[in-house]
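Forum: Protein Structure Q&A
Topic: Joint prediction for protein chains with partners

I've read a bunch of threads here and the consensus seems to be that you should model interacting components together rather than docking separate models afterwards. I'd like to see that in practice. Below is the full input, 231 residues plus whatever partners are listed. Could one of the regulars post the assembled result?
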Amino acid sequence: AQTVTQSQPEMSVQEAETVTLSCTYDTSESDYYLFWYKQPPSRQMILVIRQEAYKQQNATENRFSVNFQKAAKSFSLKISDSQLGDAAMYFCAYRSFEETSGSRLTFGEGTQLTVNP
Amino acid sequence: KAGVTQTPRYLIKTRGQQVTLSCSPISGHRSVSWYQQTPGQGLQFLFEYFSETQRNKGNFPGRFSGRQFSNSRSEMNVSTLELGDSALYLCASSLWTGNNEKLFFGSGTQLSVL
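Posted by a regular:
Agreed with the consensus. Here's the joint model:
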């Protein structure tokens, strides 16, 4: 079974600064997907960024980028130019490449990000 | 286009009762997944339905069940409620089932069991 670990329960950053959230995972599969989701107080999970394990290039979405280290099974999220609206709980998630797994996600424990003005 | 709609938003029940939660996916989506979110256990997968068939099931007791209708709307049922069932229940939908599909989440149903 796959596991996802987020070792930082809480992080804080000053507005306009950069912050990195950590995530490690364990799997015996060679192909899979990794995600970062954001959950604001509205509770709705919002996809921030997605990485396919077979792609060596790190994914980027505007101010959000990842550092994907497949051998180390590490998948960190970097938020540049932090904004007040970035404050939320961030979850790292894993999805198997196996067809039988369907859309099932395995989530980490989450990191609560505070953005200070 | 309307997003994923979950009803009700909040629910209070007592131990031993049963509860039914509803999820209406985005129009055209055929896959619906359910997750339980608690402070202690985090986010855990309950089950996934695709075209009215359960495709996947998480490690939950048989008190947790679900179904999907022909219009893709889904319901989950919890019987004989326990205090530990208090949680936020999230529903997610996608066009198809499988690894390359983007999931869209609803805002959840907050269930409190007293």
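The mean pLDDT of chain B is 93.
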